[in-house]
Amino acid sequence: MTVQDQTVAWDRRSTAGLTELITGLYQEALSNEGLDEKADFFESGGDSLTAFQITGRIQEALGTEIAVALVFAYPTPEELAEIVAEELADTPAGVAHE
C-alpha cells in the first residue's frame, strides 16, 4: 500500500489508520518489512537522517509539518501516531510539534 493509499484510509477519529501509516513509513525508511507498531525507532537502527525522512513522509501524507523531535520523544509507530493525532486534533492545518 502506498503512502497515498494509506493517507486516504486514515480516519482522524481513530489512531489505528495513522498507526498503520506510520508503521509503513518506518518499514520503508528502515528497510525492514518486519517492523510492527511496537518497533522502537532506535533499536531498529534509526538515526537522525532516518528521523528526518520519516517526518518528511508524514508531512507529505498528512499535509502538515511534524517536528522531527517527535520521532525521538515517541520512538514507536504506535506512540508517534498517538501524539501526532493529538497534535493534529489540536492544531487545525498547523504545525504539530513538541
From TrEMBL:
InterPro entries named in the record: ACP-like_sf (IPR036736), PKS_PP-bd (IPR020806), PP-bd_ACP (IPR009081)
Record Gene3D superfamilies: ACP-like
Stretches of the chain forming a coiled coil according to its record: none
Record-linked PROSITE patterns: CARRIER
Keywords assigned: Phosphopantetheine, Phosphoprotein
Residues annotated as domain Carrier: 13-88
Listed PANTHER family: FATTY ACID SYNTHASE (PTHR45527:SF1), NONRIBOSOMAL PEPTIDE SYNTHETASE (PTHR45527)
Protein name: Acyl carrier protein
Organism, scientific name: [Kitasatospora] papulosa
